[in-house]
Amino acid sequence: MDQKTEHPILEVISLQKRFQVHQSFGNWFGKKSYLSAVKDVSFRLYEGETYGLVGESGSGKSTTGRTILGLTPASSGQVIYQNKDLVKLPKKELRRFRKDIQLVFQDPFSSLNPRKRIGRILEEPLIIHKMGNQTQRQEQVFNILKKVGLLPEHYFRYPHEFSGGQRQRIGLARALIMNPKIMICDEPVSALDVSIQSQILNMLKELQKEFKLTLLFITHDISVVRYISDRIGIMYLGTIVEEGPTDDLFNEPLHPYTKALFSAVPDFTRNRLKERIILKGEMPSPLSPPAGCVFHTRCPLATDKCKTEVPIFKEMQANHKVACHLF
């Protein structure tokens, strides 16, 4: 796919999310500061692809996904879908676009109402958007349960009666029942056993083809994102530091952080162990991010320029971009 000639289905431009933090003495008298969870994030989603968003815990991956959907209001930036900026839309108009962009949560149990049967939970979005009558909605729920590998009798059960893998299937069913064009998957398999992970991932690939879905797949698991993604964006401290096609990124990572991240993944295809890159220190606090390149405090190749100047996110190869002064 030539991405330069293809129009993106969704475009994120300079997205930022800052949270106000109240320190000592509470909301009225305390000193106010801001936590930059997402800082100047830009990327494009193309129809039918899977874009993987990867990084350590606290890098801003999940906040990015929730901000795109409007569950967390953006501080600034744009989210362009069907020539509309979702960031600026009023809530009533934004609800109309929510049918096309759905979210699969990391913890399906906490996202399911424990007092409602699964059938009622799956019917709820159809009722909200006034889609079909009661008989049609019930038939649609039975159909979507079958597609995610569940049985008709599961319609009458409560969330606590299911295993973790089954709950995640319910989460997928709830997103798919609206027949969306884009699905944001926030760590959908991180809490599951490895064998269940593979089942969910394979099913997700099949459903993507059947429903013609575009996926934004958020995870910290490098092996999972390599399996499912067409392109990958590497996040560090609220910014994307490298982006490229999956094979290019794994064959020739450019950013020092990407190299360190990928070195932690065992490679069983070679006879020798690859060199493990150990980063010193912890990720800086987003309350007081470092000046210049956000990674310079842990980068083994940092120079004086890295400490003062923010690197430009530029294309080095075909569709392969990096933000690093070394290039």
Order of helices and strands: EHEEHEEHEHHHEHEHEEHHHEE
First CA to last CA: what distance? 26 Å
Quote the beta fraction: 15-25%
Total beta strand runs: 12
What is the percent of helical residues?
A: 25-40%
By oligomeric state, this entry counts as single chain
Major β-sheet strand ordering = 6-7-8-3-9-10-12-11
Family: Belongs to the ABC transporter superfamily.
Keywords: ATP-binding, Nucleotide-binding, Transport
Pfam families: ABC_tran (PF00005), oligo_HPY (PF08352)
InterPro entries: AAA+_ATPase (IPR003593), ABC_transp_ATP-bind (IPR050319), ABC_transporter-like_ATP-bd (IPR003439), ABC_transporter-like_CS (IPR017871), Oligopep_ABC_C (IPR013563), P-loop_NTPase (IPR027417)
Question: What is the topological layout?
Answer:
Elements: E1 10-22, H1 26-29, E2 32-45, E3 50-54, H2 61-69, E4 76-81, E5 84-85, H3 91-98, E6 101-104, H4 118-128, H5 134-147, H6 164-176, E7 182-186, H7 194-211, E8 214-219, H8 222-228, E9 231-236, E10 239-245, H9 246-251, H10 256-263, H11 304-308, E11 313-317, E12 320-323
Parallel strand pairs: 3-8, 3-9, 6-7, 7-8
Antiparallel strand pairs: 1-2, 1-4, 4-5, 9-10, 10-12, 11-12
Structure description:
The chain has 327 residues and is an alpha/beta fold. 31% of the residues lie in helices and 24% in strands. Strands 6-7-8-3-9-10-12-11 form an eight-stranded mixed beta sheet, with helices on both faces. The protein has a four-stranded antiparallel beta sheet with strand order 2-1-4-5. A hairpin with a 2-residue loop joins strand 9 and strand 10.
